[in-house]
């Protein structure tokens, strides 16, 4: 087998932690916990139900929620769909007004566009120069008929962190609901839903060392009566999301969230050290700049734009696995909507890379990546600057 590239794309997905895999496989075979959690009449079902409820508690614990406020979904995409469509539908024929931003994940952008086509009025907020949505911008966007504000906690391309509390207070004062996509925030930002004025929050397991295909939506008490199910059939999850619960996925997500809680401080310190080791030599290169706020950010995700004519991302070839943009955009190779909203043109966007670090990044990986990126700068062809 060829040597695999260095992995610098933890924001796209993470490997499943070995300890999480152990929990997961115990929920599959005949000797394991394979029952249907809805089969309440026998021990197999009851044991599966216990695993599901334990996991619900583990997810709730990391984010300061109550277990009963966590609804299982197939991932953050579905959580976003449930939050946005579910609230809009409950709001009903009044249509009304929704506030979101231009730099949301596609799972929010495309869902809001769908609602917009259905007659909901939408304000698309632009980020400030730091890649943040200010509380003031939200305040100015609110209208009498605004029923929902949806903004991400952590931007998946920039690593910037919106001020959930300041924005939430304004939304709450107004009376609308506040949804946050926190797929990139869980385990990286200290989240306290018991205190935060946030009504709905989306999570995904595979950004936090759990498996793909499982996520959750936090539904706070204000949001519960203002949310309608989007998937029907059996009335699971208090009627909010039908479908047989995937015990192995759910138990794994719970284990992943518990591990994140246990190692929270240690992991953040580890990532910050690695980020500094990476950034220092790269910022010494001529004309390299970081996109997004230098202070309101997580250390895990870095978006770097290189100087015209001084960087050839193709030269990184198969040696580093990174994203030119987010994994979700790269399917169609379009320039990043986030970078365009920040004021970059398409050519600057093409000289931008996202490097994201995680649990299995070692110091040697950092040093090797720095060496490779420096070489890619040296290898930039003179014609790179020529418009095409
Ligand atoms: C990855 C991601 C999603 C999608 O999550 P899935 O679980 O893959 O559906 C949504 N929003 C953000 C910000 C993400 O990073």
UniProtKB/TrEMBL annotation:
Keywords, in A-Z order: Aminotransferase, Iron, Iron-sulfur, Metal-binding, Pyridoxal phosphate, Transferase
Record InterPro entries: Aminotrans_V_dom (IPR000192), Aminotrans_V_PyrdxlP_BS (IPR020578), Cysteine_dSase (IPR016454), PyrdxlP-dep_Trfase (IPR015424), PyrdxlP-dep_Trfase_major (IPR015421), PyrdxlP-dep_Trfase_small (IPR015422)
Cofactor: pyridoxal 5'-phosphate
Enzyme Commission numbers on file: 2.8.1.7
Gene3D superfamilies: Aspartate Aminotransferase, domain 1, Type I PLP-dependent aspartate aminotransferase-like (Major domain)
Residue ranges of every copy of the Aminotransferase class V domain listed in the record: 7-367
A GO term for molecular function: transaminase activity
Catalytic activity: (sulfur carrier)-H + L-cysteine = (sulfur carrier)-SH + L-alanine
Top-level taxon of origin: Bacteria
Entry-linked PANTHER family: CYSTEINE DESULFURASE, CYSTEINE DESULFURYLASE FAMILY MEMBER
Family recorded in the similarity comment: Belongs to the class-V pyridoxal-phosphate-dependent aminotransferase family. NifS/IscS subfamily.
Name assigned to this protein: cysteine desulfurase
Organism from which the protein derives: Pseudomonas agronomica
């Amino acid at each position: 087998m060829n040597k695999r590239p260095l992995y610098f794309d933890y924001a796209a997905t993470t490997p499943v932690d070995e300890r999480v895999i152990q929990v997961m496989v115990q929920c599959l075979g005949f000797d394991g916990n394979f029952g249907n959690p809805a089969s309440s009449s026998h021990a197999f079902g009851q044991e599966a139900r216990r695993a599901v409820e334990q996991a619900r508690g583990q997810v709730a614990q990391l984010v300061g929620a109550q277990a009963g406020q966590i609804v299982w979904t197939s991932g953050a995409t579905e959580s976003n769909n449930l939050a946005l469509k579910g609230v809009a539908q409950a709001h009903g024929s009044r249509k009304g007004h929704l506030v979101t931003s231009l730099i949301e994940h596609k799972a929010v952008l495309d869902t809001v566009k769908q609602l917009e086509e259905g007659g909901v009025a939408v304000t698309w907020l632009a980020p400030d120069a730091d890649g943040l949505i200010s509380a003031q911008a939200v305040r100015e966007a609110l209208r009498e008929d605004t029923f929902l504000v949806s903004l991400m906690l952590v931007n998946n391309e920039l690593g910037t962190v919106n001020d959930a509390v300041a924005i939430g207070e304004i939304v709450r004062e107004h009376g609308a609901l506040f949804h946050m996509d926190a797929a990139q925030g869980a385990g990286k930002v200290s989240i306290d839903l018991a205190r935060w004025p946030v009504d709905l929050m989306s999570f995904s397991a595979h950004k936090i060392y759990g498996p793909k295909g499982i996520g959750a939506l936090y539904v706070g008490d204000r949001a519960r009566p203002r949310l309608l199910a989007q998937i029907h059939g059996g009335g699971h999850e208090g009627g909010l999301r039908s479908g047989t619960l995937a015990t192995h996925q759910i138990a794994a997500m719970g284990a992943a969230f518990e591990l994140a809680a246990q190692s929270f401080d240690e992991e953040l310190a580890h990532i910050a050290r690695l980020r500094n080791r990476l950034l220092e030599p790269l910022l010494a290169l001529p004309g390299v700049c970081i996109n997004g706020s230098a202070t309101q950010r997580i250390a895990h995700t870095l978006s770097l734009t290189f100087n015209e004519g001084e960087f050839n991302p193709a030269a990184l070839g198969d040696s580093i696995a990174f994203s030119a943009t987010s994994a979700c955009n790269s399917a169609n190779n379009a320039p990043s909507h986030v970078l365009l909203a920040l004021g970059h043109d398409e050519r600057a966007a093409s000289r931008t890379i996202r490097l994201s670090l995680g649990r299995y990044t070692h110091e040697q990986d950092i040093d090797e990546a720095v060496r490779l990126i420096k070489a890619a700068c040296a290898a930039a062809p003179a014609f790179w600057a020529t418009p095409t």
